[in-house]
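User: I'm putting together a teaching handout on how multi-component assemblies are represented. Below are the sequence lines for each component of a complex, exactly as they appear in our records. Could you produce the 3D structure of the whole assembly as structure tokens, so the students can see both representations side by side? Please keep the chain order the same as the input.
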Amino acid sequence: MPALLRGEELAGVGVGLDERAARLQLRDQIARLEAELASLFGEAFGHTEIRHRVDARSAEPRVLGLGELEAVRDSLADRVAEARIELAERARVETDNRELLRRMLAAPADFKWVRISRADVGEPGCGAWHSRPRLGPIGMLMGWWRVKVSSGCPLAGRLAAVEHEA
Amino acid sequence: MSGAAAERMGWVPAPRQGWVAPHIASELPGLGIAWVEVDAKPGRSPEPVRRRLRDLSDRTYGSQAIRVRERPIPWAYRVFYRQIGLDPDRTRTPIEQLTLDRLHDGGFRSRGLPADALTMAIVETGVALRAFDAESIEGGLCIRDSAPGEKLGEQEIEMAHGTLTIADERKPIALLFGRTAAGNAVERASRRIAVAAVQVKGVPQIAVEEALWMAAATLESA
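Assistant: Of course. Below is the structure of the complete assembly, with chains in the same order as your input.
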């Protein structure tokens, strides 16, 4: 049955070629997802933590098969989806905090002792807005509330006490 | 400047291009290996090299450590690590490992030659470089998978069949992005060093050549 044998051979080659094409396509998808995850990781850093790890499929480097590449692709896709949700949730929280800050600045007495940090509103650096009474207990009794803005990050450099010790 | 042009100007020898096993090349297009050999002795880095390392430390910031994976060449290596089953957040790519070490140590610590030459070239270009004792290499370098029962080095344990390795004409000398066989690592007695660059899809040839020239020139000048 030469014709049948030939047909089987070609069918085998076809599957091989299809699988190789599928593996190449999966590798391209992995590349795109990795780029997206790297970008999301950079965007999230300092704002929120995202899960970005995808476990190794092998202890040592080797050419992965179709199933393993699919598993890597799926794990990366999951991480990207989770990161997007996490970032959207964080953006919503920061928007709410900015709105809270706006209302607190307008009426400090309505938000007694509330403290909002720069990180809470998605801004870089140190510092916070704190609703506190003027003149301590007197201000508390009189209802003299204000929002105090902290002076930001400590200055870089050695402390005076260290200089004296030296 | 091309390798040939640089060689005419009397700099360092032109990079030699290794080969990749055809079935691996068809699966991982863009994978390649190139290397240069330099007469150099390992040892303490001279002051100009240490000064360049300090300058490099001053130009490397924490923010770069976060964003390094978004740059095209480091990203290409991360992708390749994923494609060969490694987790680049555990087995770090060379550029990411050096950037993290820079943050951890507060600077690029001098580890002598050839390590410092490789550090400078990797940080400047992002290309993954390795150093081997050139006299222990037989013939040219290649990237191939391990045969059943093949070992990395004489005394070491057997590798799993299909492990990707850097090999010479006789045997594997290192895992691809992994450890080097004991007999092929640069040691105190080495007098000739081979600097090898592993190229992956997305890493331009010019970056590979630049990295090799940079490392070789540093070793030659020391």
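A couple of points students might notice: The CA atoms of residues 104 and 159 of chain B lie 33 Å apart. Chain B has a mean pLDDT of 90.
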